[in-house]
Every structure is written in C-alpha cells, then in structure tokens.
Amino acid sequence: MKAGVIFVTVPNGSTSPQPSFLARSPLFPLYGESSAKTTAFSGWEMPLQFQGIRREHEAVRTGIGVFDISHMGKFLLQGDDILENLQGLVPSDLHRLEPGQAQYTVFLNPSGGIIDDLIVYSQGKNRVFLIVNAATRERDKSWLLQQLGNDKVDLQDLTQSNVLVAVQGPRAEGVLQTFVDTDLSQIPFFGHSEPTLFGTSAFVARTGYTGEDGFEVMVDPEAGRRLWRELLKAGATPCGLGARDTLRLEACLSLYGQDIDTHTTPLEAGLKWLVHLESQGDFIGRSALERQRDEGLTQRLVALKMEGRHIARHGYSVHHNGEVVGRVTSGAPSPTLGYPIALAYVRAELAKVGRTLEVEVRGKLYPAQVVKKPFYRRR
Fold first, then answer.
1. What CATH number should be reported for the domain holding residue 236?
2. Which among 70, 92, 348, 357 would be 20 to 30 A from 364, CA to CA?
3. What is the pLDDT of residues 175-197, one digit of tens each?
4. What distance in Å separates the CA atoms of residue 228 and residue 63, rounded to the nearest whole number?
5. Cα–Cα distance for residue pair 354/314, rounded to 1 Å
6. Domain limit, last residue, from 250, 279, 310
7. Is residue 6's pLDDT more than 60?
8. Of 71, 72, 68, whose CA–CA distance to 34 is shortest?
9. 233, 85: one domain
C-alpha cells in the first residue's frame, strides 16, 4: 500500500486527489512482468500503460488485448423477486431479461441525473449480478441497500475477492475459447455464462468497453493470475487505462464522472435507447425525464472532430458566434482515425451533425465539426 495523498494525471488529462491508501488488484504482482507504469485511479493502483497507449490500442483493434479491470464494483444481489425490486431503480425495462442476458442502464436521482451507469446481469428473478464503477462502489452499495431494504436483499460485494479481466479484440473469442469448456460462439452480445476455467467456475460475459467484440471474465484470484499469464503466452497484449480511454472514446462510450454524472440525464447524454418510458412503470427520475421529453432538451452530448492537430481536453469551452455554448467532457487524439476527437455538451439547437463550432485551446479558438456517433464502429 502507498501512503500519502497522491495527485496524478489520469487518462482524461485531469488531475484528481486520490485516497491516502490505494487498493491493489490480485493481478498487481504480475504487472512488473510486462513493465507496467501504474497510476492512482478511483482509489486503486492501476496500470496506465505497458507497451505504450498507441500499441495497446492498435492491438485491441486488430488482434487481442487484455485489461485488468478488477477495480470495478462487483455486486451479487439475491432475494425474493430481486429483479422486480431492482426495476424501480432504473429507467430500462428489466422484465425483458431472461437468465443469461444483461442490460446496460443507469441509476437516477429524482431530477433525472445519473448516479452511476452499470450493467445488470440476470441470473433469474431471485439472483442478479451488477457491475458498477469503482469510484461510486461504496455509494452505490449504500444506496441500493437503502432503496431495496436490508431485510429484502442479500448484497455480496465481490470486488476485493474476485479478479475481473477484459479480453477484447477480433481474436478474443478464439483465444479465450481454448481455456473454457463452453462454446463462446453461442454467447450473444450482452449474454453471459458460467463455464469451467482451469477447473474452477467462472463468470464470462460478452461485454466490454472498447468498441470491439470481447469478453469480461470474473474468476478467483488464483485462476485469474493463471488466465492473465496464459493469455499473454497466446499473444494477447496487456493493456492499461490509457488505451482503455482512447478505445472507449472512439466508440463514444461514456465515462462516469466525466461525460455523465448527477447533473446530466440519459436523454441529454444520448442514452435515450436505454430509457423505456413506454414499457416501464414508475422509477426514480421518471417525471424529470418525461418533462425533458415533452419540453425538449437544453443541451446534448455531441461528437466533435477537431480540424488540424489541436486536442480538445476535458473542461475546455465550446464556442459559437462569439459565445460559450458548451464544454468538452472527453478528448484525445484518435489512434485509429488519425485526428483529434472529443465529446462535448452543447446547446441542443447546435447539436446537428455537420455544424461547425469552435473549441478554446490555450486561449485560441480552433474549429471542430459535429459528427455522427460513434467515431468508430467495428465491421
């Protein structure tokens, strides 16, 4: 463990104070084998990069990359009709989920702001698995118990006791298949299964945060360490937070605390597809979303293609006709596309694809065009 308050530049370029003590993944002892550069992130000491962000990014786009994402919150919820009880906390229709299926969704506050984004994995009406963000894990846990009631739900926090590994890229299925006894080709996108891995039970989901096909695998620490080493032997490139950030940005996947937070709603963030007002009953934040639907939005999250080589960073202002009309939430050079890209909230009337805006970079304004999301879509 490391003592002291640490300030570190995280993948988005911002500087954030970190806790005095940093948690470490069970895979941490293996980082040195691949010359990892670590950084503080959401209370954990995590790899920022191994072989370089660009090389890791390209490995995921063209072959196979492996990420240690053990810092993510992992909750197992059990109880009578737990899926039904969870339904009132999200805007997505969970009734449609069959065992083995999953739904990306959000927790909302009464004003429609996003408390956290998460994935709900259905394992039957009385058993649900959740993956939440590392930075909001403790808050999410308290909020869930408060809303569902300690007497109605058994919440097991598996974050510290289990390894979570993301295996991503065009070769992910073929390589991972050699280690499990389940036909991975039969697991659909956002499906999951519990195969045997190295003689022990594992949780394998066809999900990810890179814009590529791939899987997220949860196992015990011993099996996790073996899986990490075997994947590297099979040609997988170890990847850190830096590549994870550029990959998800190209795919226009939101980062909590940056692109979405308690002050933004899923409608403003371009997540209308997970809001099922027609089929959903009452849920926290419903009335606020209905008002936005009926009255219209004041801001929208858009994708920006920067002209030239100037990089729009988190917090930079967006301008139009001499006025500040928005702010950048994420920005970086795109290794795949070869030019800088960004996400930004702008006035709703300026969010049309093809609109030219300007981003202030170090006191000067540079043109940026609103483009269709995502920047990158796999074939």
1. 3.30.1360.120
2. 348
3. 999 999 999 999 999 999 999 99
4. 16
5. 22
6. 250
7. no
8. 68
9. no
d(CA 231, CA 211): 20
Identify the pLDDT of residue 19.
Answer: 53
Percent of the chain with pLDDT over 70: 95
CB 141 within 8 Å of CB 36: no
Quote the number of domains for the chain: 3
Residues 171 and 68 in one domain: yes
Q: How confident is the model at residue 149 (pLDDT cuts 50, 70, 90)?
A: confident
Query: Which phi and psi (to 5°) does residue 80 adopt?
Result: -60, 125
DSSP 225-289: HHHHHHHHHTTPEEE-HHHHHHHHHHTT---BTTTB-TTS-TTTTT-GGG--TTT----TTHHHH
- 236 within 8 A of 251, measured Cβ to Cβ: no
| Residues linked to residue 315 through DSSP beta bridges, in sequence order | none
Among 17-31, 33-47, 308-322, which is the least confidently predicted range? Answer: 17-31
Between CA 164 and CA 207 the distance in angstroms is 12
CB neighbourhood size of 276 (10 A): 19
Strand pairing partners for 205?
192, 216
The predicted model gives 219-224 an average pLDDT of 98
Strands of 203-205's sheet, edge to edge? 192-193, 203-205, 214-219, 163-168, 65-68, 237-239
Domain ranges, residue 199: 7-72+160-250
293, part of any domain: no
66 and 81 belong to one structural domain: no
The confidence band for 9, taking pLDDT boundaries of 50, 70 and 90, is very low
Q: Is the peptide bond before 374 cis (omega within 30 degrees of 0)?
A: yes
